[in-house]
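Hello forum,

I keep getting stuck at the same step: I have a sequence, I want structure tokens, and every attempt I make locally crashes halfway through. Rather than fight my setup again tonight, could one of you with a working pipeline run this one for me? It's a single chain of 93 residues.
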Amino acid sequence: MAIKIVMIIFILLLLLTSWYMWHRRNGHFLIYDIGGDPHLSNILKWTSVALLAESILGIILLFMGNKYLNLITLFLASLTILAFGLSITQNKE
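Reply #2:
Ran it on my machine without issues. Output:
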């Protein structure tokens, strides 16, 4: 039961992060000015969509009964955030 509660909190955080990235894709995101760079806007948009899809998948897997299926959600979300972090800090000079 504790795993389900923690996973629900994690999925809610994924949804909140996805919502925040979607709404900041044309303005300011942390220290970046996204409005002047369409590449960063595209990165935010696709990361937001990926996190939303992983949240939906996580909700489905959460209620399947097997606690090890939750590792799929954790793994996918970690990879998505890793890819986002690497792509947003990449210098194209």
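The chain has a mean pLDDT of 85. If your local run keeps crashing, start a new thread with the error log.
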